[in-house]
Design a protein that fits this description.
Length: 158
């Protein structure tokens, strides 16, 4: 092998290693930048918190669609819903391009207690639209609430 090829091979492998190391070093910073801080605002967007103030384990579904969120919408997407223990909070980031206060732009949360999911089969939940609480807010309403939604587990109709 001539000397030119050896130099190119060394440079090529070192460059690949350098790029790999740079990417691995940058990854934690990118992950941290998507997290929210105490003032609910980061450079990527606003953070909305749903706090579980009930005594139950809950599961949370979210949507930014214009239509009203339903159990069918949540479960048909096949994604696992995040669960919250009593006292925990769910973090939802509204990124910059979603922040625009467009007419009809709503941020929706649907809550299921663990007991609800255990006492009803999935077909019944979807067909009858069973859930424990649904929240629908536009950006201005969330802003007035300081981006914090509290789930107490108490039905407003009781």
């Amino acid at each position: 092998m001539n000397i030119t090829k050896k130099v190119k091979n060394i440079f090529s492998s070192n460059l690949k290693r350098y790029i790999y190391v740079c990417m691995m070093c940058a990854l934690p910073f990118l992950c941290m930048s998507a997290r929210c801080d105490d003032d609910h605002d980061n450079h990527l967007g606003y953070c909305v918190y749903l706090e579980n103030e009930s005594e139950d384990i809950i599961y949370v579904g979210t949507s930014e669609n214009k239509g009203v969120i339903s159990p069918a919408y949540v479960f048909m997407h096949g994604e696992e819903l995040p669960s919250l223990q009593p006292g925990e909070r769910f973090e939802f980031v509204i990124t910059g391009w979603k922040r625009v206060n467009r007419p009809g732009q709503y941020y929706q949360f649907i809550v299921f207690k663990k007991s609800t999911l255990e006492n009803h089969d999935m077909r019944e939940i979807i067909e009858k639209g069973i859930y424990d609480e649904r929240y629908i807010f536009n950006f201005k309403e969330l802003e007035q609430m300081n981006f914090i939604i509290s789930f107490t587990g108490k039905n407003y109709e009781e």
